[in-house]
Amino acid sequence: MDNQNGTQVASNNFASRFGAIMAIGSMCVGLGNVWRFPYMVGAFGGGAFVLAYLICVVVVVAPLAIMEAGIGKGLQKGMIDAYTEILHNKSLGTFFGGVFSFGYYSMNFYFFAVIAAAMYFIYVCGVGMWTTMEPAKIYDYMNTIPAVVAALAVVASLYTLHVVFAGVQKGIEKASKVMMPLMILFFGIAIVFAIFTIPDISKGYEFMFRPDFSKLKDFKVWAAAMGQACFSIGVGAGCVLTYGSHLEAKGDVTLSMLTVCMFDTSIGVLAGMAIVPACVAMGLDTTSGPSLIFRVLPTLFSKLPLGNLIGILVFLAIIFAAITSAIAQLEVFVVALSDSFKMWDRKKACIVFGGIETVAAIVSVYSQPFFNFWNDVSGNYVFITSAGVGAIVFGYMYGLEKLRTQVLNPTSDIQVGPWFTSLLKFVAIPIMLLMMVNSLFPIF
How far apart are the first and last CA of the chain? Predict the structure, then answer.
C-alpha cells in the first residue's frame, strides 16, 4: 500500500525541473500574453507600459508567485484543502477554495470561443481570405458561421480534457514540453521575418521600447501594467499554488518561479514584438483593443510577403499559449475536488467538468451575453478577488518566515533573506490589495 501511494504521489509530481518549468510556464503563458499584452502595449503608451509592466513583475508579482508556489509545495494540496489547513476551518476553506478554483476553471466557459476564433484564422491565413474580403471584416464574417466556430471550440475543449485526464507527467508535462518551445519558435520566426521585410520597422521598436517617462505619472498606466502582470502569471487564482503542489520534495521553488516569471514575461514581450512594431511601422491601429489580433493582424498579413505563412505561425503560437492556460484552468478545479472529496476522483472530475466546459464553450459561441457574463465575472471579479484574498491568507496567515526557512531555502540554489519577507509583507501584498480594491471599486 505504501509503495502504491508513493507511486501515486510521484506520478502527481513533475518528473524533472525542465518539465516543471515548462508546465508552470505554460500555465502562466496564455491569452494574457499573446492576446492581451500586445493591445495593452498599444493602448497604454508603448514603452512606458512595458517598463511599468517589468517593474510590477519584479517588485510584486514574482515575489507573490514564489510565495504561492512555495505554499503549494509545502502543503501538497489543492485549493480547498490549502485554504482549509491555513484557515483551520473546513467550511471557510471549502467556500474560498471552492469558489476561487471554480472561478478560475469557469474562464474556460468563454476561453474556448476565443481559441476557436484563433483556429479559424489559421484557415483564413492558409487560404488568404483577405484576397476576397476586406481583412478587417473577416472576424465579422466568422460570427455568421457559429456552427463551424462551435465545432472548433469542442475540438479545443476535448483536447484539453484529454491532457488533464492523462495526468501530470503523461499529460500536462508532456504537452507543455512540445507546445512551449514551438510557440517560442513561431514567434521568433515572425519577428525575424518582420525585421528583414517591413520598411521602417525600427519606428515600431522605438514605440515599444523607448518609454515616454511622462506617461509614468499616469496611475492608469501602472494600474493596467499591474493588472496585466497579475493576470498573465496568475498569482492568487490557485493555479500557481496547484502547480506548486506538483513539485517534488527536493524541487527548487525560488529558482523555478523566477525562471517561470522571466519566461512568461519574455513570451509577452515576444508576442508584442511579433505584432506591435509591425503594426506601428505599417500605420495600423495599435489601440484597437481586444480585437487587435482578429481585426488588425489579417490586414498586416495581407500586406506582407509570405503573409499566409507568417499568419499561420502567429496564430498557432496564440493557440498553443491559450490551450496551455485552458489546461491549467481545468487542472486547478480537478485537483481541488479530487483532493478534498472522496466522491470526486481525478478521472471522474475530469470527465464531468470537462464535459460541462465543452457545453459552455458551445453556448459562448452562440450567445454573446453568456460569453460576456463569464468573461466579466470569472476573468475580472473572481480573479482579482481571489488574488487579493489569496495574498492575505497565503501571506499573512500561513507564515512567511516559516515559508522562507522551511520550504524555500532548504532546497533552493538561491537563498532569500528576511528582506524577502519584508518585501512581501510591506510592499507586494499591500499593492495587490490596493489593486483589488481599485478594480472592484474604482477610486483612482
Answer: 58
